[in-house]
């Protein structure tokens, strides 16, 4: 996880502010977030306390294999760290067809929108959901003339290839992570 900077308010169309995102796109009948740029069956909602356990399970499914390779999995430590991040940066729950299938956490920094976490359940991967979420994040960043940054486990080759296809360039590497950046200034012009 990255060092957190204070989360600043963003325009309501941003993925960085869970509450503003929900209010901007909330369907009053279902309480779900709808956005015409997503498929009809994809929605976002702000996480609540009851979401902690399902989100931790999603976190474990998404990241455990990589964490085990790098440091080993200490369940008590992982739960404490996940709780700390859950409290500091409220996740957005990703729902497909009305079922929670993952989450993401985005933080606004001075020079970029930083993707802190994106995790999808195994059965939701490979269906274009991550691409839709990233496309939305990149549009939000471009509208604010900000880059998008992230760190990906070096052991997660599938995610690394995904980010490369989206135009994220490796800025530097550590023993455990590749730090990547998508630049709004060098991205293809808007269609």
Quick rundown:
The protein contains 5 helices and 7 strands; from the N terminus they run αβααβββαβαββ. The protein has 191 residues and is of the alpha+beta class.
For the terminal residues, how far apart are their CA atoms?
34 Å
Q: What is the string of helix and strand elements?
A: HEHHEEEHEHEE
Q: Which stretches of 5+ consecutive residues score pLDDT under 50?
A: 1-38
Count of DSSP strands: 7
Bin the helical content: 25-40%
Strand order of the largest sheet: 1-2-3-4-5-7-6
Report the sheet-strand fraction: 15-25%
Task: Give the integer mean of the pLDDT values.
Answer: 82
Q: Measured on Cα atoms, how large is the radius of gyration?
A: 16 Å
Query: How would you sum up the major sheet?
Result: 7 strands, mixed
* Structural class designation: alpha+beta
Summarize the helices and strands and which ones pair or pack.
Elements lengths: L17 H8 L16 E5 L5 H19 L4 H14 L3 E5 L2 E10 L3 E9 L8 H15 L3 E7 L3 H9 L3 E5 L3 E6 L9
């Amino acid at each position: 996880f990255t060092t957190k900077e204070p989360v600043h308010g963003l325009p309501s169309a941003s993925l960085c502010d869970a509450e503003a995102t929900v209010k901007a796109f909330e369907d009053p009948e279902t309480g779900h977030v709808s956005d015409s740029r997503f498929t009809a069956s994809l929605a976002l909602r702000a996480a609540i306390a009851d979401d902690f356990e399902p989100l931790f399970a999603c976190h474990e499914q998404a990241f455990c294999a990589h964490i085990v390779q790098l440091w080993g999995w200490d369940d008590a430590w992982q739960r404490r760290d996940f709780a700390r991040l859950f409290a500091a940066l409220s996740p957005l729950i990703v729902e497909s067809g009305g079922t929670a299938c993952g989450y993401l956490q985005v933080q606004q920094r001075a020079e970029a929108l930083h993707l802190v976490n994106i995790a999808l359940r195994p059965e939701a991967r490979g269906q274009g959901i991550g691409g839709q979420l990233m496309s939305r994040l990149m549009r939000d960043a471009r509208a604010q003339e900000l880059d998008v940054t992230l760190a990906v486990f070096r052991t997660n080759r599938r995610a690394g290839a995904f980010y490369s296809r989206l135009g994220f360039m490796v800025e530097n590497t550590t023993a455990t992570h590749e730090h990547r950046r998508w630049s709004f200034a060098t991205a293809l012009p808007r269609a």
